[in-house]
Fold each of these.
Amino acid sequence: MTVGKVFLVGAGPGDPELLTLKATRAISGADVVVYDKLVPTEILNLIPGGAARINVGKRAGYHPVPQDEINRMLVRLARAGRVVVRLKGGDPFIFGRGFEEALELDRAHVPYEVIPGITSAQGCAAAASVPLTHRGLATGLRYVTGHCRSNEPLNLDWASLADPDTTLVVYMGLANITEIASELIAHGLSADTPSVAICQGTTPRERRLFAPLGELPNAARAAQFAGQVLFIIGRVVAIAAEREGRVAAASTAASTVAMDVVA
Ligand SMILES: C[S@@+](CC[C@H](N)C(=O)[O-])C[C@H]1O[C@@H](n2cnc3c(N)ncnc32)[C@H](O)[C@@H]1O
């Protein structure tokens, strides 16, 4: 039996229209799709009827199928001659453990191809009209994880992250947002720095919460977000907050997104 192939595919942040043409083509040609919790139903609906679906159900802190087992599963399926799509939220190589899977496939001499996806930072920022860089406001951009192994403190370089000229995007930061905000402020970032929390960005369930950094933890707790949350912190957020305020004032009825602004 000839060995099949694995496509490590980024499903983007949630909106099916943000899938790339390559991703769509790979999904429609798959014999098996192995997918994570982050991939929404609207995208799973694109899997052809004849293809097998395997839900490995990963989300932060909850891994019903351990990563090693997922790695072995991909190798096993490809060795059985299947065309496998490994579908991950956002981009497979941004906080997605996609490269661990690629390394395992390399070790097993299984051919694979990586199909990048729009990472949630870019999808959520675009949906909220936040320019991640903007002349005069942000000369750079950093993506960090706000998640740490259980009970360990976050191991981030706070002094370099507390840079008012850089936009900071925090993935997986909801549980630690109090620590994140207070460390940034303690290392010199103003408590007035504009910030936004975006929950389930780019989907019909999207919610946005604008707040100055100092008030972000309390506001995020009060919002009781259900689902994936991303934080964008930096002066560029002020542009979007101001615009959203204007749009909401002009026509509340036209707004399709639940939005809170903490002054
Ligand atoms: C394990 S990471 C995976 C990131 C993914 N590989 C990417 O490129 O976006 C999961 C985190 O991504 C962020 N995230 C993913 N999709 C999101 C969405 N639609 N809205 C808000 N945050 C999202 C959240 O911070 C979530 O905790």
Note: The first strand starts at residue 5 and ends at 10.
Amino acid sequence: MSITAEPTQIDTDKLMSFVFRAVDEVGATLNAALVVMGDKLGYYRDLAEHGPSTPAQLAERTQTAEPYAREWLNAQAAGGYVTYDPGTKRYTLPAEHALAMTDPDSPAFLPGFFQIALGTVHDTQHIVDAARSGAGFGWHEHETDVHVGCERFFRPSYHANLIESWIPALDGVREKLERGALVADVGCGHGASTILLAEAFPNSTFVGSDYHAESITTAQDRAAEAGVHNVRFEVASAQEFRGIPDGTGYDLVAMFDCLHDMGDPVGAARHVREVIADDGTWMIVEPMAGDRVEDNLNPVGRAYYGFSTLLCTPSSLSQDVGLALGTQAGPARIRDVTSAGGFTQFRSVAETPFNRVIEARP
Ligand SMILES: C[S@@+](CC[C@H](N)C(=O)[O-])C[C@H]1O[C@@H](n2cnc3c(N)ncnc32)[C@H](O)[C@@H]1O
């Protein structure tokens, strides 16, 4: 007996609504490159400074070719990033957009988010190959836009929250840092968090570490530029960092947006337990996420699942163990990692739209 499938009824309105949504997303995909272009060429900064402008004015002031400035402005106007006045034929970057596109200290600063996204997307073919073979693709294998974009994306949030609200949310930590404490910032990348902490707590000693040697060189440069002297950096994995000669007795160990990138987060947790003082604190800053997939099906979760697929999970898979926690691991899985490492206390102490801050104690 043969069974004939019923022909599927296509709802044309639903189909066209999906197609037009996808058209908008193709525009958004290209806009990632346009934002990075505008950031690198100084278009946003120029428009913020000079107000309503023609393409010729923007091109002249930024010393770029007018056809590029013209098409870029039209794309930005179609996407709602700038406004266009047909009467004067001038383009304006609204004040709120100017803040988000040009002020690197504002928590709303966006170019870093686009820069890390575009840098990540650039390596898509490597991830396609890795998905077929099951291999990983390491953080260090990505292009510089990923590393610099990461720093520029996360730093504004650390600048806005770390000293004012995250450190005070940890039990007794601010007082220790004010008196003089020993602190490790593990997986520190370009050292944005390490330097903010070192500037705020001059009596304390900070050791930033990361397995990526180029990031550590940049972190050293950033510390020299900032003129901070109570910080040093070393190339080391989270499972092995020492920082100081005997490498134990840390009052605070911090991990900013990196635990889920590690191949062996449980091994890292065990090592943190070995080097931390018995009354010490492990501060874990992770991407904002709930425990269940359905908790994360929102715009922030969408961006983070995208990064998880293309950047963070391949990073974990490129290392020993390759646990692949995922960028949206959620607090329950992070708690499992800290418990397996020998930590008995676990508390979620602060949240922003992008991050959750966790306190783990021995
Ligand atoms: C998303 S970036 C965050 C960097 C920095 N903490 C920040 O917030 O700007 C993740 C960092 O984890 C580092 N990383 C990944 N696996 C690591 C490991 N096993 N040990 C040490 N660092 C690691 C990467 O090199 C990268 O710098």
Note: Residues 12-41 form the longest helix (30 residues).
